[in-house]
Write a structure and sequence with these properties.
Oligomer: single chain
Helix content: 25-40%
Largest sheet: 8 strands, mixed
Low-confidence stretches: none
Number of strands: 12
Structural class: alpha/beta
Number of helices: 16
């Protein structure tokens, strides 16, 4: 797939911890109880120093914190890790995605100073004071505003990402105007891909949210057609062409997004994998035994302990797992070993992820 010297972008999941309870996040079950398979792992500054040698950091153009399960504003060493990367590579682009619902003004000023215009925060805020919490459950609006203002007023570069649902679609234009007034460089409405179930390989019209006590909260629904993810409408076309979505996944050629970018993903456990999508299959809440997911065939074949980048990235690359994953794309079907998540996320005829950002 690629060699260690080919990596130019690191996607770092520094923590599995988060104060929010978003209903379509793998960290919890529909916004309710925490995913039973995760241990709220988190990387320290020392962990990151062990993973990323100075010469490796120097070859990078980008490091960003996002991930599958946590929010970087909750991790203890987020600022220190960003500062470490900046000290070694003054020109690297640094960024992070966050729900914005934590930290004080001093923390956000420090982050702006570290980024020093060579970086940005993507604020994932899906509505205004009366709607953001309907998806971003447990996120408090006053903290969101404080985070946005504190970072931007300190000179930070910021983007506002707005997932559109039925309940907040009437606020898209209002939020965009507010973003300009507050000093955001960009407002990105996102036509969410969350109304396609990877587990069932089919679309859905709604998703029922619950709270930590299991009580139903918001029934999340698709927005009007103009805000819907256009790729999701291809489902019927693909089923007609191939017989089923699973048949499509068996046949479709793969155009790997991360291979083109030279992108490496590091989980909050310190594991190195090609992307957040492969790592995202490790701990699915719907599985009683998480190892039923196909990705574990590859992880277990080389040993999970050998993917621990805290022992050195070279060790991980020497396992051959990256080439094993790429070679799987030539297999006759997913049952025969073709990695299904690669077909789902990087199959050339169905790309809901990229379509999220198309106006």
């Amino acid at each position: 797939m690629y060699k260690i010297q080919d990596i130019r972008t690191v996607h770092l999941e520094i923590t599995q911890k988060c104060q929010a309870a978003c209903p379509m996040c793998d960290r919890n079950k529909n916004g309710g109880e925490i995913n039973q398979h995760i241990n709220l792992s988190e990387l320290s500054l020392e962990d990151c120093k062990n993973i990323f040698e100075p010469d490796f950091i120097k070859q990078l153009t980008t490091m960003f914190m996002c991930g599958n399960l946590g929010d970087p504003i909750i991790a203890n060493d987020t600022l220190e890790v960003f500062r470490h990367f900046r000290s070694i590579n003054p020109d690297i682009w640094l960024s992070m995605n966050t729900n914005a619902g934590a930290r004080d003004a001093i923390w956000w000023k420090d982050l702006a100073d570290i980024f020093n215009k060579k970086g940005a925060v993507i604020f994932s805020v899906d509505g205004l004071e009366d709607t953001n919490h309907l998806y971003r459950q447990k996120v408090q609006w006053d903290k969101v505003e404080n985070s946005m203002h504190s970072f931007i007023n300190a000179g930070g570069r910021a983007r506002w990402d707005f997932l559109v649902f039925e309940h907040n679609q009437h606020q898209v234009e209002i939020a965009e105007e507010i973003s300009k007034k507050w000093g955001f460089e960009k407002f990105q409405l996102k036509k969410t891909a969350r109304f396609f179930s990877s587990a069932k390989s089919q679309g859905k019209e709604s998703h029922q949210a619950i709270d930590r006590k299991g009580k139903e909260t918001t029934n999340l629904k698709k927005p009007d057609v103009k805000y819907q993810n256009k790729e999701l409408s291809k489902e019927e076309i693909l089923i007609k062409k191939y017989g089923s979505m699973n048949n499509y996944y068996d046949i479709v050629p793969i155009n790997c997004k991360v291979k083109e970018e030279g992108n490496l993903f590091i989980t909050a456990e310190g594991l190195a994998l090609p992307c957040c999508w492969t790592a995202g299959m490790m701990y699915k809440t719907w599985q009683k035994d998480y190892k039923q997911e196909q990705i574990w065939q590859y992880i277990d074949s080389v040993g999970k302990e050998n993917l621990d980048a805290r022992q050195g990235l070279s060790q991980v690359f020497n396992t051959g797992i990256f080439d094993m994953i790429e070679n799987s794309w030539n297999k006759s079907s997913c049952k025969d070993g073709k990695l299904k998540v690669c077909s789902q996320k990087c199959g050339i005829e169905f790309d809901p992820f990229s379509a999220q950002f198309v106006r």
